Amino acid sequence: MAKQPRIPNMQQMMQQVQKMQQDMESAQEELKHETVEASAGGGMVTVRISGALEIQAVKIDPAAVDPEDSEMLADMVLAAVNEALRSAQELAANKLGTTTGGLDLGGLGGGLGLPGL
After folding, report:
1. pLDDT, position 115
2. Is residue 88 part of a domain?
3. 65-107 pLDDT per residue, tens
4. Contact 72, 40 (CB under 8 A)
5. C-alpha Rg value of the chain to the nearest Å
6. Which of 38, 28, 35 is nearest to 50 (CA)?
7. In a domain, 87, yes or no
8. Residue 58 pLDDT more than 70?
């Protein structure tokens, strides 16, 4: 005779989901106060960004400002911003990933507007 599948305890499941939601909200709040930095051009351009993906600072070494080659400066700024964004998204994925306990949300996190998921 086939073994009956175990029926999940819906109340327990809802409590786990609520706790996970609270943990994620807490982690998102913490991310607002964390920062990452990235640079390009050997440190000529540095960008600081929060874990909430808000650019906080852009520093440009005066030696990087060449009126004859503004494209190079633009490329360095773009590279630094993109690297900072990648780092911040990785930070968010690591922090928020621990709150889900390894649970695969199957794209659900992205649909909720959660950075890094």
Report:
1. 52
2. yes
3. 998 999 999 999 999 999 999 999 998 888 877 766 655 555 5
4. no
5. 21
6. 35
7. yes
8. yes
The structural domain count of the chain equals 1
User: Residue 39 maps to which CATH number?
Assistant: 3.30.1310.10
Residue 45 CB coordination number (10 Å): 23
Model confidence at 23, pLDDT cuts 50, 70, 90, reads confident
Long-range contacts of 17-25 (CB under 8 A, 24+ apart): 20/99, 20/100, 20/101, 20/103, 23/99, 24/96, 24/99, 24/100, 24/114
In a domain? residue 106: no
| 78 occurs within a structural domain | yes
* Amino acid sitting at position 32: K
From 92, 108, 3, select the one nearest 51 (Cα to Cα).
92
Range of the domain at 54: 34-99
Given a contact cutoff of 8 angstroms between Cβ atoms, the answer to whether 65 and 107 are in contact is: no
